[in-house]
DNA sequence: CTTGAGATGTTT
DNA sequence: AACATCTCAAGA
C-alpha cells in the first residue's frame, strides 16, 4: 500500500485537482476493498472563491475540516440525501479543497455494484455523490486522513496534460465561469461528457 | 438520446 | 430559498 504522502496536497488547489487525475482512490470501508481511478475533480480554491464553502472565510461546523491539515477528507451532506467527498489542500488554516467528482471502477467492482445496485459500470462513480456511495463514504469519514485506511489515495499512472480537459464547474452559480473542473478526455466515467459552454 | 420534476434535509 | 445531486419518467 503506497499512499500518496500528505505533502502532495499541500500545494495549490488547482495543481492538486489536475494531478489527482489517474491516481487511485482505495476504500476498505466495511471490510471489503475496492478502488476507482480518479477521472474527474473540481477545485474550490479558498476564501476568494464564491462557490467555495469557505468563501469569505466562512467557518462552521460543516466546513471546519477545510481549515485543517492538507490531506484530510472533507465530507458534506447535500440535497437532503447525498454525501460528497473532498480532499483538503493548501496549508493548515487556509480553507480550500478538491471535490472528487468521477471515478472509473478498477478493483472490487462487485462491492461497488452492490452499493450502486442496478446501474451500469459507467455510472457507478460518475458524479460526486455516486462516487461517495460506491466507496462507502459518509459523514463518518469527515476529517479522516486520506493517507491511510480505510480510505486513501494510491499512486497510479498520472493523466498527462494532453489528456486532461478543463471546464466550468458543475452545479455552481457564483463562480460559474471559472474553469476549475478537470477531467480525463474521453473517459466514459465522468459526470458529464462535455462542458455545456466553454 | 434529451429534458424536467421530485425527493429530501441542511444551511443561509 | 438555495443547495458542489441523483433518479425516473416521458418525449423526440
Explain what the structure shows.
- The structure is a single chain.
- This protein has 198 residues and is an alpha+beta fold.
- It contains 3 helices and 9 strands.
- It has helices spanning 13-19, 109-115, 128-135; strands at residues 24-27, 34-44, 73-78, 82-88, 97-107, 147-148, 151-154, 164-167, 181-184.
- Strands 1, 2, 3, 4, 5, 6, 7, 8 and 9 form a 9-stranded antiparallel β-sheet that branches.
- Strand 1 (24-27) and strand 2 form a beta hairpin.
- The longest helix is centred in the middle third of the chain and has 8 residues, at 128-135.
- 45% of the residues are buried.
- It binds a DNA duplex (12 and 12 nucleotides) through strand 3, strand 4 and helix 3.
What is the average of the pLDDT values?
96
Largest sheet report: 9 strands, antiparallel
Number of helices: 3
Distance between the termini: 39 Å
- What level of helicity do the residues show? 10-25%
Low-confidence stretches: none
DSSP summary, beta strand count? 9
Please report which band the strand proportion falls in: under 5%, 5-15%, 15-25%, 25-35%, 35-45% or over 45%: 25-35%
Coarse structural class: alpha+beta
Principal-axes geometry comes out as: globular
From the alpha carbons, calculate the radius of gyration and give it in angstroms.
15 Å
> What is the succession of H and E elements?
HEEEEEHHEEEE
Amino acid at each position: 500500500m503506497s499512499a500518496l504522502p500528505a505533502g502532495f496536497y499541500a500545494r495549490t488547489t488547482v495543481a492538486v485537482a489536475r494531478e489527482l487525475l489517474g491516481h487511485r482512490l482505495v476504500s476498505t470501508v466495511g471490510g471489503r476493498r475496492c478502488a476507482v481511478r480518479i477521472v474527474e475533480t473540481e477545485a474550490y480554491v479558498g476564501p476568494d472563491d464564491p462557490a467555495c464553502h469557505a468563501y469569505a472565510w466562512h467557518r462552521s461546523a460543516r466546513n471546519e475540516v477545510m481549515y485543517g491539515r492538507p490531506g484530510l477528507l472533507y465530507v458534506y451532506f447535500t440535497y437532503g440525501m447525498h454525501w460528497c467527498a473532498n480532499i483538503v489542500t493548501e496549508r493548515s488554516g487556509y480553507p480550500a479543497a478538491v471535490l472528487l467528482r468521477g471515478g472509473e471502477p478498477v478493483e472490487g467492482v462487485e462491492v461497488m455494484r452492490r452499493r450502486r445496485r442496478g446501474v451500469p459500470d459507467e455510472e457507478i462513480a460518475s458524479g460526486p455523490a455516486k462516487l461517495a456511495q460506491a466507496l462507502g463514504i459518509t459523514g463518518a469519514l469527515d476529517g479522516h486522513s486520506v493517507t491511510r485506511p480505510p480510505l486513501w489515495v494510491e499512486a497510479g499512472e498520472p493523466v498527462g496534460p494532453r489528456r486532461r480537459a478543463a471546464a466550468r464547474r458543475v452545479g455552481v452559480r457564483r463562480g460559474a465561469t471559472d474553469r476549475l473542473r478537470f477531467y480525463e478526455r474521453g473517459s466514459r466515467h465522468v459526470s458529464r461528457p462535455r462542458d455545456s459552454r466553454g
